[in-house]
Amino acid sequence: MLKYAYKIIFTLLIILLLANVLIYFNWSFDTYDEVYVVKPAMENMKVTTKLYFVYEDKLRSETRTVDVKNREFEKSIFEELIKGPKTKLFENSLPTEVSVKSFEVIDNIVYINFDNKFIYNDFFTDENFFLHLMAYVNTLTEMKHNIKVQFLIDGEKLTERVHGISLMEPLNRDERAIYIRDISSSDVVISFIEMIFSRRFDLAYEFLDENSKLSYSYQVFQEMMEGYIYYHDGYQRNIYFMQNYDEYDIVTVKFIENEVVDGNQSEIVEQWKVIKSKDSYMIDLTKLIQH
Fold it and tell me: Which of 138, 171, 231, 277 is the most exposed place for a label (fewest CB within 10 A)?
């Protein structure tokens, strides 16, 4: 009898233990569901990109940092674009009386739906209508070139041409509409210096002429430029100007110290020799003069 009593007691203890385990896990899961399982927040992020506006017969760009709301990348950039340019000479591509009825992105196509005042508007002429369209297209495709833009009027595609332009199909990016400034030897020097400060020594090395590359291997160049960065620590680039000669240019760049001591700022003045060829500029690093 005593043996059976022990078995009964042991069985009851096992059942009680299992019941406690089930209760514990059930409580744990309920607590986890209530406390720890939360939906991820749709955090806003920022992106720096170019917005395009019409000036004269080309598109000119303004660099803006845009708040991307609810991860709606293209819509946030579009909303920034229609706020208008900060440069007074640039034209706004959205007439004040025109409203945007909807904006959607489906399968890499941006659908911009304007009211019909967009096409029946004295703001646009035959000459500038295409450029204003490209201001939208090139802005929205600046960082994603595979995107196309479909313009709609009151939710419909237009079967007739507007100022000679067909809006039946989505429009692709067109780089030809963008103004490209002629590159000067000073542009090359400034780009070279910015690459150095960004430690993109591989890109900067390609700006050197052949004599400089023969004088300095890439490893030696990299070590020299680390010293250049150290030498300029606490300074910022101030002004630069260029002197032209037949076969080369001299670009003078001035750096000033960030800290003002007794009303004075020390400065570094550099002169870079830039070799001119038919279609490029190369830097002669052997002729860098600093004082």
Answer: 277
From first CA to last CA, the distance across the chain in angstroms is 107
- For the stretch 104-153, pLDDT in tens is 999 999 999 999 999 888 888 877 899 999 999 999 999 888 899 999 99
Q: How far apart are CA 191 and CA 179, in angstroms?
A: 19
Contacts of residue 154, Cβ cutoff 8 Å, sequence gap at least 6? 101, 113, 115, 116
Q: Where are the domains of the chain?
A: 45-177, 185-290
Residues 6 or more apart whose Cβ sits within 8 Å of residue 62: 50, 51, 53, 85, 86, 87, 90
Q: Considering the entire predicted model, what is its pTM? A: 0.54
* 58-68 vs 281-290, strand pairing mode: unpaired
For the residues 215-242, what does the mean pLDDT come to? 93
Handedness of CA 64, 65, 68, 72 (dihedral sign): positive
Q: Which position has the token pair 């659908």?
A: 111
Q: What is the pLDDT of residues 21-74, one digit of tens each?
A: 444 444 443 433 334 344 444 456 888 899 999 998 999 999 888 999 888 999
Q: What percentage of residues in the chain have a pLDDT greater than 70?
A: 84
Architecture per CATH, 185-290: Roll (3.10)
